[in-house]
Write a structure and sequence with these properties.
Blueprint: H1 2-18, H2 29-47, H3 52-60, H4 63-79, H5 96-109, H6 113-120, H7 126-143
Helix pairs in contact: 2-3, 3-4, 4-7, 5-6, 5-7
Length: about 140
């Protein structure tokens, strides 16, 4: 039984590795807004001419939600083991990191901590996951994912 479960897990992982990346056109409007806000926040951080919170607020429709995204992304930046890959705003597909961030917020908002932990447990320790989960819960609550 254990060998079958391990084999099934490996097959699932291989399917996920070779699955096409999610497309922004296939997302719900709230999900697409979160991805767009994240991309614009990152661009604003890089160019330093626009406030990242205001750039995100335009996409999320709320300054409070944009502040919450800012907190989440600050925790991600401090916790993620590698640089976070974010596509330009015009890109029609999500990067793996964008899909992971979106999945984290969705899982946190739907009160499924095991799903949240499954997305992050291989790269983050418990303390970092706790901080990210709390920030993702707050953001999910504000944008109703």
């Amino acid at each position: 039984m254990i060998a079958t479960k391990t084999r099934a897990t490996k097959c699932f992982m291989l399917d996920q590795m070779f699955a096409p990346p999610p497309r922004t056109a296939d997302l719900l409007p709230e999900e697409a807004a979160l991805v767009s806000a994240t991309r614009k926040w990152v661009m604003a951080q890089r160019v330093a001419r626009v406030c990242p919170i205001h750039a995100a607020a335009q996409q999320l429709g709320s300054l409070k939600a944009a502040r919450s995204l800012h907190v989440l992304l600050a925790h991600v930046g401090a916790s993620w083991p590698d640089a976070v890959a974010v596509a330009p705003p015009c890109c029609p597909v999500l990067t793996h990191d964008e899909a992971t961030l979106l999945g984290m917020v969705i899982a946190a908002n739907r009160h499924t901590r095991p799903v949240f932990d499954a997305l992050t447990c291989e790269m983050l320790g418990q303390a970092a996951r706790d901080r990210l989960h709390d920030a993702a819960v707050e953001l999910g609550r504000l944008i109703d994912l």
